[in-house]
Amino acid sequence: MATLKDVAKEAGLTVGTVSRVLNNRGYISDDAREKVNGAMKKLNYHPNEVARSLQGKSTNTIGLIVPHIRHPYFAEMISNIENQAYKKGYRILLCNAQSIEEKEREYIDICTGNRVAGIILCSGTVSVEVFDGIRVPVITMERFLDNGTAAVECDNRQGGTLAAERLISCGCRHLLHVGNISSISMPADQRTEGFRQVCEKMGVAFHEVFTEKSQYHNMKYDALIEKALQEHPETDGLFVNSDVIAAQALQVCRRMGISVPGQMKVIGFDDVNIAALTTPQLTTIHQPVREMAEIAVNLLHDAASGKIVPKRTVLPVYLVERETA
Amino acid sequence: MATLKDVAKEAGLTVGTVSRVLNNRGYISDDAREKVNGAMKKLNYHPNEVARSLQGKSTNTIGLIVPHIRHPYFAEMISNIENQAYKKGYRILLCNAQSIEEKEREYIDICTGNRVAGIILCSGTVSVEVFDGIRVPVITMERFLDNGTAAVECDNRQGGTLAAERLISCGCRHLLHVGNISSISMPADQRTEGFRQVCEKMGVAFHEVFTEKSQYHNMKYDALIEKALQEHPETDGLFVNSDVIAAQALQVCRRMGISVPGQMKVIGFDDVNIAALTTPQLTTIHQPVREMAEIAVNLLHDAASGKIVPKRTVLPVYLVERETA
Hints:
The structure is a homodimer. By secondary structure, the first copy, chain A, is an alpha/beta fold.
């Protein structure tokens, strides 16, 4: 196997110059860079990243902890974070904590044990004390952590406001809202707040239904929606907290013989791929997932470089008008 | 920061015993294991995985290279691979090569540079020579590589056969098949073969349409399907190569005033979450993604341990009857 010395010899340069090229440090002429890259290619030399990272303090790996992978929202989030990480020279250690506190805790240990540059946490079941002992930046997505480094959120309250305004302007007078998991407190709860406030101001009746962890993990909401519609048969407008729930609301309406958007308007949340794949296509609240992912990686990079970063970043949402409301 | 010595002192054991517990090597009594774990917890000691992996030959990291993350099939595959990796004590370095040869090549270098235990490759744009220089196992998913370690596939031909048989038994006589990306050869091409063979045997007319890389990456097939249905207005049965394509076929049919399953039967492929989220729900070919993922991780583990592993593993598929055929 080729060594650094072999590369230097092949390139006709000193070991120090080759090392500068590999570490991208100090002055390097284009000519030297080309020679080193040519020699590495010729000798099939792969720098040992493990050894290199030992010399530095941490690796250029980001620990990404999510509660779900196959859920379209997280698939979209992971894809965008991976893309931005690649651009910034980081790679992704992907951890699916499945909202299990013990697994999340273990994954945090695995990340720190692997000397990650920082953690992006999209999951939020462990108690805050766990984060006190962590020496790397922790960026939380749609979660707020008092002792985290920075939180990235969308304007959830605004999303709820926009949904209520839209349904009411479509003529709906009996609204139903399917909210978050009742046992976990998170920024997305603000969607319900924004929605409630508009309904109360406009004097429009509404009911709220909350969901459970198991429904979230199995992505099975149809029984819940069917029961709610049976209990509130006057409902003419639905605002639900994800496009996955909205897709199932369309199925339930069809089964119950309720036409969408004729007799029932439906608005989802997230605007991820499933929103454009249903029949009819979903009207939904667009969450700027790409921008949130880019900002999270940039915040992690800045924080890991010792910069002061904003504690909280809130991005705007907007209504995407398709066919269901 | 606590050291191994501190842990040994706290546990009242020798450094050698603590090291044996950490490396899970040789005889360790339950009592010793408990004492070490207790001491580590008390001292907030995190073993430096980077340093530990330098002592061994490779890390317990799997490089997972995919062409897509947000596509429901890959989201499902990644989720299952991550889950099995966790069970086997591996973590996942997630790389999205986006079917870009240069990016795929670079990610392979990143994986080997990070001393991964092996690579699971769900992407397949680089030429085979690249893999000759790799010293770790390479497991390919739905890709066959002459110089790979092992390939895991589903019985694609059988899938095509089942779809054709089902459509014909539903009374369809003018079939249309939306196949794979024409420029990339892959095991999934066998779906078309199986489908064609049944049609020819039964004397049923059929047309084939192929897709492009850009459609695959944007998950946008509606224009393609609409054009094909305009060119072949007699079509009464559709077999398409993914549930994502099938979901869009439902949208196109609705737009064109064609009722499903009344005037048109539709069969997808994969049976991932989107198949159960459309209205009507998709009849599709179930690909055993969970089992394929488990087998891939196990093969990688065995091959990395120096065992001889099967070069090719083919899993069965079956038809899931829902509402569209």
